[in-house]
Design brief:
Structural class: alpha/beta
Radius of gyration: 18 Å
Strand content: 5-15%
Shape: globular
Order of helices and strands: EHHEHEHHEHHEEH
Number of helices: 8
Distance between the termini: 47 Å
């Protein structure tokens, strides 16, 4: 059995994000000045979290975010960032480069609700979810192959200890055993993957965990929060456990969704 952490981060802001224009896959923009600051803040927040594997979408905004985050990391020097096209944002077809509201207007003209509408030339939500499922499956295989001998918490009895156990962290205030520590849920795990991707893609990963894998959720988390929009450089973390029979789907536990503590100082500076 292998248990590993999975932290998923949305890329930093681009000019298109700021102007509320759809990017998808056809618009490959770098981070804005604010986006760089967001990625740097995310890197500082995660600097003491050890990552054994790092993956990124091959689109520029995600690759740049991943590189900035890892530049600050104290425990993963020289780690290779693997770029994977399966982590790309949803393709929005002819709507790419246009205002978000234009897609809503297209959906209305087609007699459909916007979340379920597919612009001509774009991907359906099911196609994005299929990509997400395939990536998670291959990630589990890779993590098992590379870390099976050394994975898991220090004790094999019971679930992995929370990151907030011990003298270094103040008592938790929530029923989820999460106290907003950067290493929540993953402190005692020998394997931990960082994935940098995109907003719509991340929502489909979360839906895969909740709807397909029956992911265990924090008690205080509402279902509406699970599928809410993730801010730029917002973070989600899951703990995945894979049995030795690697053909069996992993079990999943959600630690937190769309965490944005690291962005507080940027808001104060505005």
């Amino acid at each position: 059995m292998i248990t590993f952490g999975l932290t998923i981060v949305r890329h930093g802001e681009t000019w298109y994000n700021k102007e509320r224009l759809l990017q998808g896959q056809g618009v490959d923009e770098p981070l804005s000045e604010m986006g760089v600051k967001q990625a740097e803040a995310a890197g500082q927040y995660l600097k003491d979290v050890k990552f054994t594997n790092v993956f990124s979408s091959d689109l520029q905004r995600a690759k740049q975010t991943a590189a900035i985050i890892m530049r600050s990391n104290n425990h993963s020097p020289g780690i290779t960032i693997i770029c994977d096209p399966r982590l790309r944002e949803r393709s929005f077809g002819i709507a790419e480069g246009k205002p978000v509201n234009s897609m809503k207007e297209m959906a209305k003209a087609a007699g459909q609700q916007c979340p379920h509408f597919t612009p001509p030339g774009g991907e359906t939500q099911d196609q994005v979810r299929s990509r997400a499922k395939e990536f998670i499956r291959s990630l589990c295989q890779r993590m098992a192959s590379e870390h099976l001998a050394c994975s898991g918490p220090e004790s094999t009895d019971g679930p992995p200890p929370s990151a907030c156990e011990g003298d270094a962290c103040p008592p938790c205030s929530s029923a989820t055993n999460s106290c907003n520590h950067p290493a929540d849920g993953a402190l005692h795990l020998a394997a931990h993957a960082l994935v940098v991707s995109h907003g719509t893609y991340m929502r489909n990963v979360v839906k895969h965990f909740v709807e397909d894998l029956d992911c265990a959720l924090p008690h205080s988390l509402k279902m509406s929060q699970m599928f809410s929009a993730c801010p730029n450089t917002g973070m989600c973390r899951f703990i995945l456990t894979l049995e030795r029979n690697r053909e069996v789907a992993p079990s999943a536990e959600c630690v937190f969704i769309n965490r944005k503590d690291h962005l507080a100082s940027l808001r104060e500076d505005e």
